[in-house]
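Model: Ready when you are.
Researcher: Fold this.
Model:
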Amino acid sequence: MAGAQPLAARGPLPPAVEAAVARARLPRDALSVFVADAQDGRAPVRLSYRAQVPVNPASVMKLVTTYAALDQLGPAYAWNTPVYVDGPVRAGSLKGNVYLRGQGDPTLVVERLWLLMRRLQGQGIHAIVGDIVLDRSAFDLAGHDPAQFDGEPLRPYNAAPDALLLNFKSVVMGFVPDPGAGVAHIQYDPPMAGVQRPDSVALAASGTGCGDWRGALRAELSDPLRTTFQGSYAASCGERSWAVAYADPQAFAARAVEGMWRAQGGKLTGSVRDGQVPAGLQPAFSVTSPPLAAVVRDVNKFSNNVMAQHVFLTMALQKNGVATWEGARDVLRQWWLQRFGAEGRPVTDNGAGLSREARISAQALGRMLQAAWQSSVMPELVASLPVAGIDGTLRRSTSRAGSAHLKTGSLRDVLAVAGYVHADNGRRYVLVAIVNHAQAAAARPVLDALIDWTADTP
């Protein structure tokens, strides 16, 4: 590994950090810290505190996944979703099936699904006298219970990976108040075939504050075939949107594809169903994702779990022809061994950090970040990280604005940051700080104090 010198002996934490730990009422052994020069792996480590202890890193594990993917696949890698037409087209009607073959593209959101359907109509097809078949065989994954992790199945962050992932298996509801009509109009994206949904909800009494506007709607979202609102929406909220994971995630793609096709005036005599592309059939066209560098930016800036899992699984798909969880773990294990040896090898689980089993030490992650700084993909990795006090998941940081590019991590009992800090002496430092404790949520000032201490180097 880069800079394989003995670590600095365990010593006291910087006084400002010690004070922040005391104010947060955290035990000192809840914290793991590693601070070292990013540009010179041979320089003495500035701070190593419980840095060799494997801990749960929460979403900073995404750094391992995204750096490994950038290193192996390259920043320009893109996902292709081929579309096949099986039959003759006459007078705007296809006498046969359309096949959509998912290859793990994590960016097939509403706008790109709309464009895919427009491309299909560009083939001269306006009526499909047959089925639309969804081929999701590129990912071979066990069934997923979206409530298993934290009992929140309707939160988009709990969406499961899918070779044909559409809009993160979530519906975005947009609310626009219309005081003259006494209602808030509701727009749903994507359109969902066979789902009954109201197009408006009553406005609350004049003068009602916005407050907990989602709770005030009293929405019933657990029925996949019907959405209802028993409450009201405050005009003072203005325009708002609410993303909700669909209650029947396995059926989401079929309903979204059919809904989008019909919303564009397309006709379908058959159904939308799962299946596989017939052997030998050539694609009519493919839709291509943004490059991996752009996807990694979304993963790290906004800590998108399902996108991170898709990046993780794609490394296995490229190597093995089909993606499995164990295949992805094996690809990352081999990559780590080749780059850094057996020391500090992480337990990656699903690659996103949305896990109670994932483990890595602050030292191992810090050494990886030192190596990443020296790599050809350093610009793409660093640009993907939230900037302290400016954007992404660090926009509310109270540390000095603009002084650091850091990935954040947060779970119940975990709070973490990891990345790069620009110090007053002009040097860049790697900072990894991870708190594992029941009161981890109180540790944010501790992490801000560490960022400031690292940046304040004379």
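Researcher: Now this one.
Model:
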Amino acid sequence: MDVRPGDVLLMKKQHPCGSNQMFVIRSGMDFKLKCMGCSREFMISRGKIEKNIKKIVRDSEG
């Protein structure tokens, strides 16, 4: 799955604050994400994130 820093991920499940949008700060074996609702930053493994992504939103292509 092609997830790059700067992407916004729409997730299948909501964060406890109620938002389902996550901003990608860093990608690799682990992802560093920032919740778009409460601005909390957290690290999570690639396997857990990839199965819960509904859609990837990119501002600029190319």
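Researcher: Key takeaway?
Model: Helices lie at 46-50.
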